Amino acid sequence: MAVRVCLGFLILLLHSNFSTALYEDQVGLADWHQKYIGKVKQAVFPTQRTGKKRVVVSTEENVIASLDLRTGDIFWRHVLGKDDHVDQIDIALGKYFITLSSEGSILRAWNLPDGQMMWESALYGSTPSKSLLFVPANTNLGKENRILVFSGGWLHAVSSIDGEIIWKKEFAIDRLEIKQVFQPLESDIIYAVGFVGSSQFSVYQLSSKSGEVLKHNTASFPSGFCGEVSLVSSDMLVALDATRSALISISFQSGIINFHQTYISDLLQDFSGMAALLPVKFTGMFAVKTVSGICLVRVKGVSELEVIEKFNHPASVSDVLTISGEQQAFAIVQHAETKIDFKVKLDKDLRNDVLKETVEMDPQRGHVQKVFINNYIRTDKSHGFRALIVMEDHSLLLVQQGEIVWSREDGLASIIDSTTSELPVEKEGVSVAKVEHNLFEWLKGHVLKLKGTLMLASPDEIAAIQAMRLKSSERNKMTRDHNGFRKLIIVLTRAGKLLALHTGDGRVIWSLLLPSLHRSEACGHPSALNIYQWQVPHHHAMHENPSVLVVGRCGPSHDALGVFSVVDSYTGKERNSLKLAHSIIQVIPLPLTDSTEKRLHLIIDANLQAHLYPRTRDSVNIFLHEMSNIYWHSINVGKGVIRGYSLRSGCNLDVVDEYCFNTKELWRIVFPSESEKIATTATRKMNEVVHTQAKVLADQDVMYKYISRNILFVATVAPKAAGEIGSVTPEEAWLVAYLIDTVTGRILHRVTHQGAQGPIRAVVSENWVVYHYFNLRAHRYEMSVIEIYDQSRADNKDVRKLVLGKHNLTSPVSSYSRPEVMVKSQSYFFTHSVKAMAVTATAKGITSLQLLIGTIGDQVLALDKRFLDPRRTATPTQAEKEEGIIPLTDSLPIIPQAYVTHALQVEGLRGIITIPAKLESTTLVFSYGVDIFFTRIAPSRTYDSLTEDFSYALLLITIVALVAAIFVTWILSEKKELREKWR
Amino acid sequence: MRRSAEAIASLLLLLLSCHLPSVLAGAASLGDGYTIAGRVKLEGSGKTTIGFVPPMKNSNAKVILNGGQRVTFLREDGYFSFHNVPAGTHLIEISAMGYFFSPVRIDISARNPGKIQAALTENRRVLQELVLEPLREEQYYEMREPFSLMSLLKSPMGLMVGFMVIVVFLMPKLMENMDPEEIRRAQEEMGAQGVPSLSSLLPGRSN
Which Pfam families match (chain B) (predicted)? Predict the structure, then answer.
């Protein structure tokens, strides 16, 4: 009896704490977080004493950040809205970082030391135009500083202290395009220069006090301009003519406009094709980019142009940097094989280099794309230079004194797809970890841990425990582990780079800038699309390394030719690459592998023909055998059509190609375009495992799940309500959710939500769909769940029938059998907007599921699927409670401890990926956006293994205490017995 | 739900009829939109956090309009504004680590230019002014309970030890108080059941 009570207690204790929350000292044990900023577009170096060691940047991911020049760490960072692209940046008053964003309509000032927004101004424009920002140099501190912004056809003068608009002036002339706005030093006149149409040049002189137009001159140039200009001095600029083959120097001194045309071929003998002016700011010179390289040209007078130097591609030129008074410097970076040459020149002495350094460069970083230069005073009072270099793979490097001081792998801010790979199996006799240290050390460690759990440890000891845990070499080994926690996450970035990250600590194991996605003559604008598992050896071909397939396309349009690349997952070397002779519309990984365990892939091209890969005899034989069972579907969002296809052999190509197959349309669903527009589609994950086919209810009843791989969830919205929230009234909006069988095109279920609109996020798993949308009536977000059950198998409950074999359980589940389905659904309110949604995945599918919801605050919330159970009622019966049904509430709970990202944010969250570990209870979660975050979670706690916190010391102490107690009682009883005998 | 909706409607009517000075917004000068301006109060929200999440600074909070359509940041004094917002019903969300904010429903009336109504969507509270305070603070970590003898005893191993102590020291006491006849009978019964009892095991060891 007592044993039972004790056991009961134990069970109670184990179950008392159901949440999977973390203690603060467990942070970093199973998770890691990396902060990125994306590809740097612009950078400025603060010159004020306090900000000398920093650089502020804006990036293509709409991030603005302040970085430490010594380490590359982020001081502060802000991720702007998704449409809030930063156009221009500068520094005003020496303490404010000014950004002009959203096509020049928002001007913000940020405090340089801490990134606090100081002011924000909205600038209204009437016509869309290029936006320009000019911050006059801070020569006179007493004078009020004004920022000049040209955007939307208006010129604004904005106070840099509080962002107030002092005056504004509209340039309402038809077809006028202002190209440059500037104010010469110590001058009260603002110049605005631009073109009217393609052949007229216009100069405005405005008063900086009031914005009045003081002078306006125009002159026309018959052969026209292409629109590119480069300002050379305060009264001269250089433009390109309409054919891009001649340079026109324009001087506009005191209102007189002079043109002088110089053919580029006169300057450069080998010039051919088209030229472009580089948007770098020089005084007295400009840079021309031609097919063969970059050319620096000095302007001596209107008619005198002189080529200073020519650099062959790939090269990059920095902006000019003013150092000590009149002197100006600029940098040139040139690529040579695996090295880069970094040169700095002074404008006084253009022939010679002040500094010339050669830096060894990782070839996987590609070419130099941008360079920003900064100077510092050396100990001997001379000027030293450092350069911030942006590479082709979006990484950011700081070069100083001939070496790379730090580098940031910022390509990871733009992950487009990812997959995982197992690590190699540990070989006999080869152990990476060093031999277990002696028993005393081990015990000491555990005693420390015990102290930690009992809250007895001093801060020093806590730090020691933390260090010990983080150091544990176990999790960073390069071999497969028993629990399947150690894997490689292979990610594909927008720059066309593959990186393998170790799940233990997130370090980059290898990286590869895909050579097949490199720009070449055959492939103009290559872009990476997706990454797939190509070969996962486990039974056969064990000696081979696994590999992944990267699919890309040679241009922005859908009918551009495809590119294939197979990369070894262990070494990061490209095994082979292929230029396809057809386009890629869709890639279908088939659940079939050939004899070397290469997965079969079908590529659908723009002509709806299917191509089989790998192109071997073996794979064709396997494929032909299964071809009658292969169906696929296409979704045309624009036209609102979903079509289902089957495959037939033979292709209408000129050449006989046995790997090419024809497709035949089987069914189509056309949504009425006037009332429905496809908003979202979702399918089940291909590798999902379902453990139980049935659900046993509390009243001993059984419900059979309708589990089909071919379920497609489609959500359509009213075309009027396809936009953002706030654009429609509830009466005009509706959302229709469909569940479609993709083999037969049968609509299994259809439900309409009146007054609902997108954005819709949906996730399909097992026999259910969960989707998130906006309810306009309640003006809150809502989440709905639909569960489908198979009615045709519902009468398989009689045990006698089962025993006698009179059941249909063994009959194959087929889409063609048209089973009766039963659908249950329910809706709940959810507080936040959702950016991404995923569901946990475990090895065998036994563990209960959790939804992972990426909220608007860039956090990932784990929500038990039990909260989204259509069988929830407001007052569950006793039996239902025992079954684990939670009483119905109108909104889903948000428990702060259930955020898997705990106190971290995955800024700019875009995707969540779940990977099953080998340990059934555990799921690995990888979420990415601008930041990347990895953790492992156990939706029903780690019931199949001891936690890392498990205190072995406490166990040992207990055992020792018990043994001691046994001895003591034994001695006592001996004595007692002796006494009894003497009595 | 319906009743509360009615209540809100009547409140709105009340607000309209009272002609309260609307500090929420002013009509925009240019363009056809309006300006939503408000304030987020983080510091004055009551108790300070208990050190786990560092006290939030305004610089890390974001204000999000219509689920990400536009994002803005707080100024030093907690003020924020969205410019050029068209008339209609909008949603504002605030993301600040360590705090839970209710989304806010903003109605910009097209008929009554510049008139803006705001209400929290979580508890349907109508806001007179667009001053947003967190509904609650969020604690992302589980708190470690301070060391106590009880927690040690309550742990499975503590229970084991405790149980053993009880068996070792209390059982013999109980036995002593028992009638020897009864003990014998009980032992016989147990022997008949074939289940070795703990009391018979212990002296058995000492033999």
Answer: EMC7_beta-sandw
Mean pLDDT, range A469-473, rounded to an integer: 63
Do B29 and A117 lie within an 8 Å CB cutoff?
Answer: no
Cα–Cα distance for residue pair B110/A360, rounded to 1 Å: 63
Which chain B residues are Cβ-neighbours of A725 within 8 angstroms?
66-67, 69, 90-91
H/E run at residue A880: helix A878-883
Q: How far is B43 from chain A (nearest CA, A)?
A: 16
* B7 falls within a domain: no
pLDDT in tens, A894-950: 999 899 998 899 999 999 999 999 888 899 999 999 999 999 898 888 788 776 667
Each residue of A501-514: b (16+ CB within 10 Å) or e? bbbbebeebbbbbb
Residues A202, A174 contacting (CB under 8 angstroms): no
A801 or A661, which is more confident: A661
Q: Which two tokens stand for residue A922?
A: 């555990």
Answer with the residue of higher pLDDT: A33 or A151.
A33
Its ipTM equals 0.83
Question: What is the model's pTM?
Answer: 0.85
pLDDT at A5 over 70: no
- A488 Cβ contact partners less than 8 Å away, ≥ 6 residues apart: A420, A421, A422, A423, A500, A501, A502, A503, A509, A569
Which residue reads 């270099």 in tokens? A389
B131 in the same domain as B35: yes
Judging contacts by C-beta atoms under 8 Å, the chain A residues touching residue B147 are 454-456
- Domain stops at, among B137, B171, B199: B137
pLDDT at residue B204, as a whole number? 43
Q: What share of chain A is helix, strand, coil (3-state, %, to 5)?
A: 15, 45, 40
Q: How many domains does chain B have?
A: 2
Same domain, B159 and B72: no
Asked whether residue B117 falls in the same domain as residue B53, the answer is yes
Distance from CA of A476 to the nearest CA of B (A): 25
Predicted confidence at residue A926, as pLDDT, reads: 95
Residues B64 and B39 in one domain: yes
Q: Under 8 Å CB-to-CB from A523, ≥6 apart: which residues? A: A516, A517, A554, A555, A561, A563, A579
A37-156+166-172 belongs to CATH 3.40.50.2000: no
Residue B201: pLDDT above 70? Answer: no
Q: Is the pLDDT of residue A716 over 50?
A: yes
Write out the residue range of the structural domain in which residue B49 sits.
Answer: 31-137
Min Cα separation B127/chain A (Å): 16
Looking at the domain assignment, is residue B39 inside a domain? yes
> Dihedral of the CA atoms A240, A245, A251, A257 (nearest 10)?
-90
Q: CA-to-CA distance for A889 and A209, rounded, in angstroms?
A: 62
Contact B163, A2 (CB under 8 A): yes
Here the CATH number for the domain that contains residue B97 is 2.60.40.1120
Mean pLDDT score across all residues of chain B? 71
On whether both B54 and B95 belong to a single domain, the answer is: yes
Q: Cβ of A726 and B76 within 8 Å?
A: no
In tens, the pLDDT along A427-468 reads 654 433 344 456 677 777 777 777 776 667 777 777 777 777
- CB atoms A759 and B74 under 8 Å: no
Q: Give the 3-state secondary structure percentages of chain B, helix then strand then coil, rounded to 5.
A: 35, 25, 40
End-to-end CA distance of chain A: 35
Query: CB B76 to CB A965 under 8 A?
Result: no
Residue A461: in which H helix or E strand, if any? helix A459-471
Q: Which residues of B touch A22 (CB under 8 A)?
A: 140-142
B86 & B106 share domain: yes
What does DSSP assign to residue A25?
G
Closest among B184, B65, B84 to A724, alpha carbons compared: B65
pLDDT for the residue A978 = 93
